[in-house]
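User: New here, please read:
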Amino acid sequence: MSKLKLQFCSGPSLQSSFDKNQIILQGNQQDPISSLQQENLINLGNTEQKRRSNYAGDRFIPTIKKKFSILTETKAPAQDIASSQAALEMLYKQQILNQDPIMESESGSLKFINQNNFQYKNEHVHYIDSIDPKNYNSPLVDHKYFALPETISSQYGKYIRKIPKVPFKVLDAPQLQDDFYLNLIDWSTYNTLSVALNNSVYLWNAQSQKVTKLLDLCNDVVTSVGWSLRGPLLGVGTNNGEVQIWDACKLQKVRTFKSHTARVGTLCFAESILSSGSRDKLIIQRDIRQKEDYFFKSLAHKQEVCGLKWSPDSQLLASGGNDNKLYIWSSAQYDKPIFKFNEHQAAVKAIAWSPHQHGLLASGGGTADKTIRFWNALEGRMLSKEDTGSQVCNLMFSKMENELISTHGYSQHQIILWKCNGMKRIATLIGHTSRVLYLAMSPDGYTIVTGAGDETLRFWSIYTQSMGNQQNSKCQLAPHNISIR
């Protein structure tokens, strides 16, 4: 059995020996030390010697924050050696570089968060820090995770994120329509949830738990709702083709637009611009500050427009239709889409823009497609795809992490949280007994609400307060069941 010993020598006769650090190898020659290991030991010795120079006296005893057990010198399997090396790597990063990593259980190499201008990564790991089209090759970028072997990460369970598998709150929502092409819930920046039930719209204040009826339509049905980015304005689309603007604070209607000839299934705000998509195949752009009903009509889709989403900077609009097409529009050019994608094999309702990477778009297809696709909307090309095995009803990027939330219909009725780095499933949430057609997120990003044809709204805790910046939550939800009406 070979032994590796590191000595610190101070005699004058050893000045030329590794800069006062000598490595003595004893034992059989059958276990030679590689040149890389020798170099690592020399570097470690030099580091210790430099640290000693900062202290007075002839002894330096380092302070260790963790407790360790002495290992017996037995022949360890290769897997245990690799695990031990990974543990030492982690200890070095914590003690010497003063880093506090976030850990998760997955196979792979050791990766650390760059907190003190240090960076550690394997050569084969390629990170992309910007949306520069020259190096924008993949949406699967995640700077906030590192992985350890299962044997090591199991010892640090406090770092592993745990997501509750059941909703902490359930609201009854009678007459919530089971229609794939509609968008009937939305959560405002003022922490108010709007829910369309048949011909009525209800407002639920997440902080006070108060339910208020906003409107009742006569001889019509609400087919879509959408909050403005700022302010208390709520857009309401109807089955007869109307688009109404309501002031949620004053509980009164502000304007009515009669530009569509069929139901309005999707609404989306971008600053003062309100975009609407309809079964009449039109996308209509209107400025709610102007007197005119609209300033542009776009007829590009061949069937009903069921998905509309503006990018976070309000420069690009993505539209999806029942014709299986996904189009990208520019705010400077409304007459025709700048990019057209026809890779989906079913209706495209689920659309989401990443708030973490400029120009990254995700879209999901219906029952005949079942895939989530990522697009570089700056260059107009597909980056990757993921087969989910079921109808994709909604997509939404997390506000806090580089993660994606998807809801599904036929036939699994589930909510899936994906880590965008490799599209790995973090959690699968099951509770609805019908396809999960509606999805919204709280303004603080900690909670999502889902709606289904089973006439319930379910609230799920995706993140805990400890994962954020210890800010006060805007959402105060009590864990009990009540009715929305």
